[in-house]
Automatic annotation (TrEMBL):
<keyword id="KW-0812">Transmembrane</keyword>
<dbReference type="InterPro" id="IPR000298">
    <property type="entry name" value="Cyt_c_oxidase-like_su3"/>
</dbReference>
<protein>
    <recommendedName>
        <fullName>Cytochrome bo(3) ubiquinol oxidase subunit 3</fullName>
    </recommendedName>
</protein>
<feature type="transmembrane region" description="Helical">
    <location>
        <begin position="179"/>
        <end position="203"/>
    </location>
</feature>
<dbReference type="GO" id="GO:0004129">
    <property type="term" value="F:cytochrome-c oxidase activity"/>
</dbReference>
<feature type="transmembrane region" description="Helical">
    <location>
        <begin position="101"/>
        <end position="118"/>
    </location>
</feature>
<dbReference type="InterPro" id="IPR035973">
    <property type="entry name" value="Cyt_c_oxidase_su3-like_sf"/>
</dbReference>
<feature type="transmembrane region" description="Helical">
    <location>
        <begin position="70"/>
        <end position="92"/>
    </location>
</feature>
<feature type="transmembrane region" description="Helical">
    <location>
        <begin position="138"/>
        <end position="167"/>
    </location>
</feature>
<comment type="subunit">
    <text>Heterooctamer of two A chains, two B chains, two C chains and two D chains.</text>
</comment>
<keyword id="KW-1133">Transmembrane helix</keyword>
<keyword id="KW-0472">Membrane</keyword>
<comment type="function">
    <text>Cytochrome bo(3) ubiquinol terminal oxidase is the component of the aerobic respiratory chain of E.coli that predominates when cells are grown at high aeration. Has proton pump activity across the membrane in addition to electron transfer, pumping 2 protons/electron.</text>
</comment>
<dbReference type="Pfam" id="PF00510">
    <property type="entry name" value="COX3"/>
</dbReference>
<feature type="transmembrane region" description="Helical">
    <location>
        <begin position="27"/>
        <end position="50"/>
    </location>
</feature>
<keyword id="KW-1003">Cell membrane</keyword>
<comment type="similarity">
    <text>Belongs to the cytochrome c oxidase subunit 3 family.</text>
</comment>
Amino acid sequence: MSDNLHPGINLGADHGSDHAGAEATVFGFWVFLMSDLITFGVFFATYAAASDVVGRAGGPGPLELFNLTSVGLQTAILLISSLTCGFSALAVKYKEGVAKVTFWLAVTALLGLAFLALEIKDFADMAAKGGAPTRSGWLSSLWALVGLHGLHITVGILWASVMMALILRRGENHHTKRLMLMFGLYWHFLDLIWIGIFSVVFLGGLA
C-alpha cells in the first residue's frame, strides 16, 4: 500500500503489517470519536431543552452570568492550540527531530492549561453570582456540557504529556507516529466541539 494513503503516519513501504495495524487502530479511533460526538449531541440537546424560561427556574441567565470577553479569549487560545498541534504533526511527518516535536506538543498542552484556567475562573464567577449547577435545570445542563468539554481537554493535556515522555525516551517510531495521528484527530475534534459550544451556548444565549 502506498505511503501517500497514510501521509500522517508515513510508516514506509517495508512495513505492511504496521500499515494494516495502523488502519485498524485509526479506524477504531474514528469510531470512538463518532460515539463521543453522539454523547456531546445528547448534552447539546439537553441544554437546548432546558434553555427556556421554565428551565431557568427564576435563576440568573446568560446576561447575568456570561463573560463573553473571557469566552472569546478561550476560543482564540483553543484555535491557536489547534495550529500548534498541527505543527507537531508536521514535525513528525517531515522528521524535524524530537526537540521540535516535543516543543510544539508542550506549547499545545500549555495552551490547553490556559484554556482550562480561564474556564475554571468563569465557573467560579458564575457560582459566586448565584449560577451554581444546582440552581436550575438550565445551569445544570450548562455546567454539564461545558464541563464535559473541559474534561476532554484535561485528557488531551495528559495525552500530550505522555506523548512527550514517550518521544523523548524512545524517539519517533511507528507507534508514536500512530499515537500522534490520533492525538491530532482528538484535539481538532475538541476544537470543533468548542466552536459549537461557543456558537450555541454563549453567542446564542446572549442573542
